[in-house]
Amino acid sequence: MCGRYVITWQPDEISERFQLRRLPEGMFQTYMNFNAAPTQELPVIVIDDAGERVLKPMRWGLRARWSKPGDTKAPAPFNARAESVLEKPMFRNLVKSKRCLVPARGYYEWQNRGDHKQPFLIGLPGDPLIAFAGLYDEFVPQGEEESVASYTILTTDATEFAGQFHNRMPVILEREDEDDWIDPANTDVGSILPMAHGYDGEMDAYAVSRAVNNVRNNDPTLLEPIEDED
Question: Would you identify the CATH topology of the domain 5-223?
Answer without folding.
Answer: hypothetical protein yedk fold (3.90.1680)
